[in-house]
Amino acid sequence: MRARLLVFPIKGRRNWCFIRSIDRSTTQSQSSQTPTTFKHLWNNISSSSHKSTAANLELCVDFAAYKMNKAWSALEKAPPGSFKNKIHGLGLSLLSRVKPSEIFLKSIPKQLTAVEVVFPSSLNARLVRRRLRHIALRGTVVHKNYFYGSVTLLPVTSAFAVLPLPNVPFFWILFRTYSHWRALKGSEKLLQLVSDSSKNQKSSEMHHENEVAENSSEDPPLVMHASEELERLVGGGDDVSKCRLTDICKVFDLNTADVLKYQQQQQK
């Protein structure tokens, strides 16, 4: 499984954007394999005796994520002014505080075997790779700490279940536990792919988009692609405007809301 990552400065030369291009085919195939009912989940676990405990745990996590997404969709469709609609508004306010770097790391699945890193041609490939390695290494530390902290809060927030109201604190902490766990696993996978390797460096830094390795049976784990088009879209100014960011999202198939989060974060 291969993914395309975009890295480019968004404000000056110090604040950068890290984001993965949308892979619609992979998203659809993963959603089709996710168990949607308790019966489906139990059948997958009981019929797969050859699977490890970690694989079964992954199925349970995917099932829980599916249920959370389904419940969130129900709140989103609630009539304006209703109690469920107000809970949805509160959820949106909380989600707006999630850092874009966490969203980026969550988008790196464990099945990933190779990444193509696209960056403006004016940047040095080694600098880009070091930046990626830094954000991955930092993610392994930060999200591990937050994951354990969220787990310890779950029993505390579950006590609010005695109240005759939806247990918003519990579900929020449950979501944050899942989110930090995904970001941790994404950090570990990204760190593995972009870590220093003389073999990877020689085979990837001079790689171009139209080159095909005919004598190789598999892609190198890291491919660095200096893009003239991205350089043109980013421009030579210190700040990338919202209009330019929208154009970048269209050309490289990015989630516009996630990219704009980087810009909003720098303005705070």
From TrEMBL:
It comes from the Eukaryota. This is Uncharacterized protein. It comes from Arctium lappa.
